[in-house]
Structure formats: structure tokens, C-alpha cells
Fold:
Amino acid sequence: MFRGLLLRILFFKYWCSHRKLTYRGWSVIYAFPKSLIKIGDKTSLYSSFSSNMLGLYQRCIIVARYGGKIEIGENCGISGSTIYAWNSIKIGDYTRVGANCKIIDNDFHPVELEHRHKALNEEYARRAPIEIGDDCFIGMNSVILKGTKLGNNVIVGAGSVVHGSFPDNCIIAGNPAKIIKMLDE
Ligand SMILES: CC(C)(COP(=O)(O)OP(=O)(O)OC[C@H]1O[C@@H](n2cnc3c(N)ncnc32)[C@H](O)[C@@H]1OP(=O)(O)O)[C@@H](O)C(=O)NCCC(=O)NCCS
Structure:
């Protein structure tokens, strides 16, 4: 009962397309004013230590801020990862986000020194939308940076740092991530 109540409080600030989500452990989901989070049916959020025996360093944290928008499709699975939007992050259906990933569509701090000194983060931190297609599989401990576009069925190797655009049906890996293999359709 308490869990249900807390979930309602967490849900209060965001709109969920359908409430048929699976939670393992507590996730942090928060849309600031004028921001939006949508999560599709049958998506699972794994946040408790025992929900993924790879060892999660954190809970799922899904935050939209400064008018940011997050849309996560149906039948996705997200394990102990952060998805943080100031602009827009779209994730397609059946995409898996492995343990301890970060998907961030902004730099949080400006590149220019004078703006950093004045902490003008909202005004000057760079941001660009992220699009991740259907059926992607993002390996554990990966970082997906602003402006990234992944097609459908893109596999991201564990521990990758991803920036740029990648076509459908490929495996990318490394820092910075490059295509290491094309997959048969
Ligand atoms: C990306 C991945 C799926 C590729 O598997 P694969 O197709 O069997 O690829 P291979 O093992 O044959 O490796 C192919 C090449 O890519 C390289 N490679 C594979 N994974 C890599 C990674 N994460 N980072 C950098 N290079 C990688 C290999 O070194 C190899 O290079 P080489 O051809 O020069 O020897 C796999 O390596 C991986 O990272 N899996 C992620 C597992 C994971 O995080 N699961 C989620 C748990 S929550």
C-alpha cells in the first residue's frame, strides 16, 4: 500500500502513456514544469540491487527539465541508468538499456569559461536531441551524448562513449564509438 502511494507521488509530475510498467525497486522519475515524460506499456525499470546481478551502481533516474521531453517506447527494459533531458530524448520500442548507462542530451555546464564562472548552465550549456531506434541494445556502462542518433537494431558495446549518427542494424563500440560490425537484416 505504501509502495503504491509513493509511486503515485512519483507519478504526480509526469504523464505516463499507460500505467502498465514493471518496477523492480524504486526509480526516480521527475518532470520539471513544462517538461514531459512518457513511458510506453510493458516497459520495465530495474532499480533494486537484486534486479540485475551485474551489480547496479544506481537506481533508474529519468528526469526532464527546462522544457525537456523524454519518450520511451513500449516493451523496453532499463537497468539502473540515467536518462536526463533538457531538450529531447526518444527511445523506440523493444530497446534495452543495460546496467549503469547515462543518456544525456545536454552538457549540464557551458563550454565557455566565462559562462561556467557565472554558472549560466541553463542559458549556455549545449544541448541537442537524442534519438534511439527500436530494438536497440545498449551495453552496460555506456554513455550516450547529446545529438546522438541510433537507427533500429543498433547494438552498443559495453563501456562505449557514443556521439554521432549510426545506421540501422549495426554494432558500435569504443570511445568514441565506431561501427565494428554490420548485422544482417
Ligand atoms: C558489442 C558486443 C555485443 C559485440 O559482441 P560480438 O558481436 O560477439 O563481438 P566480438 O566479441 O566478436 O568482437 C568484435 C570486435 O569488437 C570489439 N569489441 C567488442 N565489444 C567491444 C566493446 N564493448 N568495446 C570495444 N570494442 C569491443 C572486439 O574487441 C573485437 O575486435 P577485433 O575484431 O579487433 O578483435 C559485446 O562485445 C558487448 O559489448 N556486449 C555488451 C554486454 C552487455 O553490456 N550486456 C548488458 C548487461 S545489462
User: Anything to note?
Assistant: Residues 54, 79, 98-99, 139-140, 155, 157-160, 171, 173-174, 180-181 surround coenzyme A (CB under 6 Å). The chain has one domain: 2-182.
